[in-house]
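Lecture notes, structural biology module. Today: joint structure prediction for complexes of three components.
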Amino acid sequence: MNFWLMKSEPDVFSIDDLFKNKKSGWEGVRNYQARNFMRDQMNLGDLILFYHSSCDEPGIAGIAKVSKTKLVDPLQFEKSSEYYDPKSKEEDPRWIMVEVEFVEKFKNLVSLKKIKETKELSNMMVIQKGSRLSINPVDEKDFFLIKKMAL
DNA sequence: GCCAACGTTGGC
DNA sequence: GCCAACGTTGGC
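The predicted structure, tokenised, for the full assembly:
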């Protein structure tokens, strides 16, 4: 089993939205590195730190898990979508995604600030300078430490 | 709104 | 294949 961190802007899609919908396709990723993680390395049941970005208090808001793998992102073929990709072909779709399922919302958000202050988490990709990748692999021990910090 | 750090595009 | 210009991310 692998562990992940996935970023979402809460104005667009928050942990509360995932709670309401129970499940959601992780649409709109248009970065090859992030896509490759989803396409090649995500397995059913992998656990995900749900990260809120570009908001008042950036940080990890809860946990989700991978409920379906290797899905075709439908928005790449929708002309009206901001995620439309004219270069992607139906017979060879460029953008592959996973479906995620709600697991829990943290009682206390584990803020970016807190993560930066925690020495044991200094290796996390999300706090490395210049790291903008929206999907990061996470060490198992970091995953469970963050879960503990949310209590 | 600013801006640093990256990624992508396209001319050559 | 290089690289300048441009676009995006995301914290502050």
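Point to remember: The beta strands of chain A are 3-8, 23-25, 47-52, 59-72, 96-111, 135-138.
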